[in-house]
Queue: 2 jobs
Job 1
Amino acid sequence: MTSTTDLNQDLLTRAQRVIPGGVNSPVRAFNAVGGVPRFVERAQGAYFWDKNGQRFTDYIGSWGPMILGHGHPEVVATVHAAVDEGFSYGAPTEREVALAEKILAMLPSMDMVRLVSSGTEAGMSALRLARGFTGRNKIIKFNGCYHGHADALLVKAGSGLATFGSSSSAGVPADVVKDTIVLEYNDVAQLEEAFARMGNEIACVIMEPIAGNMNFVRASVDFTRRIRELTQQHGALMIYDEVMTGFRVALGSAQSLYAQKIEGFKPDITVLGKVIGGGMPLAAFGGRRDIMEKLSPTGGVYQAGTLSGNPIATACGLKTLELIGAPGFHAELHLKTGQLMQGLKSEADAAGIPFSVDWQGGLFGFFFLPELPTHYPQVMTTDQARFNRFYHGMLERGEYFAPALYEAGFMSAAHSQDDIDRTLEAARAVFKTL
Ligand code: PLP
């Protein structure tokens, strides 16, 4: 153990000299939980190995893309073949068309789709499209939802909710976020009030259907239905950010689950990422034809990308989507994730620790709270110190969960019964120490 920590520490020290914080995305720095991040050497199936050769059961899977586990042989073979044909052309390919067709076949709300390289880019472009289509500026987002780091979406709640937020990042001019309204997730009254006050100025409401950026919080059916009704009544668009939930919580994504409960439910625009690239930089946004045709070159809303629809990324995404389309894939994943979550809950109960869990398909969340939270301020009432002790206890035992209490967890098809049993055994030991 000591040598593992030392090698990771050595690399962190070296990294911090040349990369801000030593990492290329902040959560990797372990700031929320403290300690030294593990530098990954390689990964296979449900595991990765750090610099020193310690193996971890990986419940992050690159924050979502690796739904098949690492290095699935068919995906690897497909990517190898694609590499031989060239890395990038900057001209259209058949594979882009095939991937677009595949995505549309699985998401009936979408008539057309545009491929991009990251969820941030997809969210930013969807927002511009919604504003261009409606000719309006104001947007509604929800406290605790993350839609990538486009300036207008990097907004936290203001002092009173249902007011305009302030940016959560330095470097974002107040003018750029002056049209971003931040409301509390699952709060129908605030939503109704905002539409009553300025409904005819609102371009769109953007939401995560299951908020994976405040651990795991479902939008209630009522809340989702009201968003759909109010946007329709006021000529605003509903943007469903399924970057995390897309093809992970169900083959038809979260929208298929809500469509089972809300008659005719369809968002106007859907934002996708993560699973659709299978671990390669690939994301997308799509929706109704009349909206999507407003994009350049057919319409006046500009959007472009040198690496958009990259041939290797599309090959990887196509193969991944093909494999997760196998009958029963998501049902099995859901059962397995449930086994892990119910197991953790039983171990916490046995240790007398208040704990709550939720999951859908291959996405899960657990809270050191007696009841599941419904919005961000409740999520943040979690006992941070206890979460951190749990986190490090599990890490020491080779169980790799998200290093922050407000992040979701990810199960893959490669996790076995033995993996889950081992994780639960580790949890039993760790809960006793909390
Ligand atoms: N939207 C959601 C719901 C996300 O979870 C994320 C990333 O975690 C993004 C957008 C941004 O995607 P990316 O990190 O690919 O830019």
Note: The domain at 2-71+327-432 is CATH 3.90.1150.10 (Aspartate Aminotransferase, domain 1).
Job 2
Amino acid sequence: LDRKVRQNIWEENNFINYKKMSENLAIVRSRLNRPLTFAEKILYSHLDDPEGQEIERGVSYLRLRPDRVACQDATAQMAILQFMSAGMPSVANPTTVHCDHLIEAQVGGVKDLERAVNINKEVYDFLASACAKYNIGFWKPGSGIIHQILLENYAFPGGLLIGTDSHTPNAGGLGMAAIGVGGADAVDVMANLPWELKAPKVIGVKLTGQMSGWTAPKDIILKVAGILTVKGGTGAIVEYHGPGVETLSTTGAATICNMGAEIGATTSVFAFNQNMEAYLKATKRSDIAEYARSYAHELHEDKGAEYDQLIEINLSELEPHINGPFTPDLATPISKFSEAVKANGWPEELKVGLIGSCTNSSYEDMSRGASIARDALSHGLKAKSAFVVTPGSEQIRATIARDGQLQTFEEFGGVVLANACGPCIGQWDRRDVKKGEANSILSSYNRNFTGRNDGNPATHSFVTSPDLVVAMSIAGSMHFNPLTDKLKDKDGNEFMLQAPTGDALPNKGYDPGQDTYQAPPKDRNTVDVKVSPTSDRLQVLKPFNAWDGKDAEDLPILIKCQGKTTTDHISMAGPWLKYRGHLDNISNNMLIGAINAANGEANKVKNVTTGDFDAVPAVARDYKAKGIRWVVIGDWNYGEGSSREHAALEPRHLGGLAIITRSFARIHETNLKKQGMLPLTFSDPADYDKINPDDKVDLKCTELAVGKPFTMNVHPKDGKPFEIKLSHTFNEAQIEWFKNGSALNTMAKANK
Ligand code: F3S
């Protein structure tokens, strides 16, 4: 059983270690003494310390050792820049980067890709050279969407992966616990820090029966989203089990896991089964299939495993669903959809049908979709709506080009876009409707928030299976139900579409298409990382300074924030995202959304050295130039929202020392610690009110010790100084981060 099986065909020295995983599980099992869910088995087999780790679902924080890291090109920039600042020669854990998010859809695949390569040249050059330097696999623009590439190449049953993109859970279709994280977490694992995750609860979804006709795997998750809503999966892993699971292809299961992100789930998983074996074989990984078979007993839930919540779905009774508009949990079965369109006044014409994306680009999806399009063509019909196809990977594109589905879509009137995210992430130069014009679009994607696809808040975006997208594009109407409604052929004769058919895997095997992978070279010493010093999109990061060993005195309060201060208030998105690889430029958005308690306004604070009011980043820069460190006072749950690491990097970059709040959102609190800042809370939250924005404070940094309060002396502008007690959650290791200037500095030191 103790074999050396490679994780994938690309990397020679990274192996799957089921033996070690199994040993870890034996330790945990002897401690917990109860049956485990499959999700738990994956996580606990990756514990940093299986003997000592506290394990209580929904309570403890697990320290884990993931097998892999994956980043998409937008989030990879800052992650790699940070990693570089640690000065390590290569990543400590297997890592890949995927160019998929920055390609705009305009006219079609080849041209769009060419244009993107020009526009984003400096970003791609940087990523390609940094990947070569630090031993990271690099998937060039045109290779496909991160989650498809992971499924086709890197996912394996029982593995644990973190990825800097919300739909990373896609790999759960192949039995991997794949979790979407922020860049800071990715950097930790690249630098060999254990990765922390609150022990998730486990929601079981038991599938029985078998799908038929127009029902597709997508309908399972559309139904689950309707039941659980966009918040229902928070803090939980969704585990699919039951006899119905065997009836689903691996790619169909991946679709379901992918869209689990829409219910807020940590991830979703399917236990190892024979369809996974078939998929592994079809994607050149027979050895993994065999190895997994020999460990099959560890790759599914234990008998009697208990779920925190259980949902049952009978696939034989499941109807096709359409979810939306504007939210992915508004689920309507197709039989009720026409009524719903009328009742809600949703635009009745279907303007654009879009299939593909990371969610639904499998060979099965494409074959089923093409079977419907073929049916229509045989009756002399094409798509009435505009019709768009985004293949999920070069491999899928090449395979459906060889097998004819692609030509069918083109004959049907479709435009085939580049193998990339395109319209799914708003990279869509849409011309057929004006901004503000109400219209309906239907896609096989996963997210349909307002404006996501085309930046038009009046676009009603619905998500469904690729089958329904194709069928309804023929009718061009949101009222059409292919299960019950007739169409008219070119001669005016009525007919009904036949239910779709398609193969889960290509009979002739996959065609890999063009070679789009760049392996790290053998000799990496001579590689130069390409960052132009004049670039406004990229900037090399210098390691932050270590703590000077002294208490800090007379610090001004940059801003006393009042009310909600989310990571969006601290580091806004939108146009700022262009600068996500340039810390100094993006720092011009620091805290510009936070409300100043002194005047109730955003982005207007007093510079205590001049008495003038100015923008928050401008005042911070002035303090920094004058060698003055500063603090921020925050309200409740400071830093809630997305895990954006820029929200912690920016205050550190502009000279902040401490963020003192009534309470923190945990991820942001940890991110601040990682960057060498002091996240502190008022031991008595009422003390927040005692602080005046004009006060100055002293921080007794030398007092920082595990579990001990921290003293802050407050010097009011007029009035007597007083003392306040602050609390913190630093542990021993994190105190080292503060002392060394950051977690990365600490890792770099340990590696030297
Ligand atoms: Fe890309 Fe959309 Fe998936 S942005 S990763 S295709 S959800």
Note: Residues 552-751 form a domain with the Aconitase; domain 4 fold (CATH 3.20.19.10).
